[in-house]
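Here is one chain, start to finish.
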Amino acid sequence: MTDTSTLAKLSPRTGHESGVDAPVELAADDASTPARRWIAVGTVARRGIQLFAVVVLAFVVFALWLSGLAHARSQVGLQRRFRSELSQNSAPVGGAIPTGAPIAIVQIPRIGVTEAVVQGSGSGQLRAGPGHVVGTPLPGQPGNAVVAGRRTLYGGPFRHLGSLRPGDVIHATTGEGNSTYRVTNVADLGAGNGSFVQNHGDNRLTLFTSDSTWTADGRLVVTAKLVGNPYPPTNTQAPLDAEGLGLTGQRDAVSYMLVWLELLAVAALLGAYAASRWSPTRVWLVFAPLLAMMMWLFFESFVRLLPATL
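Its structure:
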């Protein structure tokens, strides 16, 4: 018994008794580690793609619908303000007109447009409605009054401008009175063609927007001549705004966009952290409005970088 016991103790054990399984399990864990890492990378990539798709979809909704609601709200306020100024004989007709102030109401019956026109034609001003190009006469005055408008974003008030035909009527109301124009030409002009803002020796109204729905490689330009005599000219006290010709955005919008993007990222990270500790209902109630607001402000800043007439 003693010799047998001694031999049993000295002989190598197999199976669980020998402890061989421990190194085998460790080797299996080591082999599975790269696979787990690839799975984690794939999960992160998939979620990143899903998040990107959600942001793109949200921007499309913003561009085609929500920005139009913002434009409609701005127009209600601008038209109410301008009509009040008309009744008080205080509508601006010259001098240093503040940027963004309403200077006219333009009506185009054929395409169903009734829009308050603001002073300035930069991307920021065209969010509210069509904009008067600074440095050109006001509608109804001698010379070439030029007005820019968006084709797609913020309600796209000039999206049907290409449907106008020679002879169609355009009405413009300013602080000086009512003016009527008749369309004489509808044309696509290249980006380098600046003839549409020049004085051609007659009294005209020029409306323009981007040449297509999603790009602004050129301009769609509508020319209309004044019916009757113009109102007396006034001094607008400003040179032609070269950056207000519709095919560029606002460079200073980059800093604002980055700020809102950073705040959006912080809000998203806080939401992800809260999701690990709060109930889904509580997370949605707290973070959904916050993320929606941050995304809206980010989109507003991003749109300012795009061509103003889009």
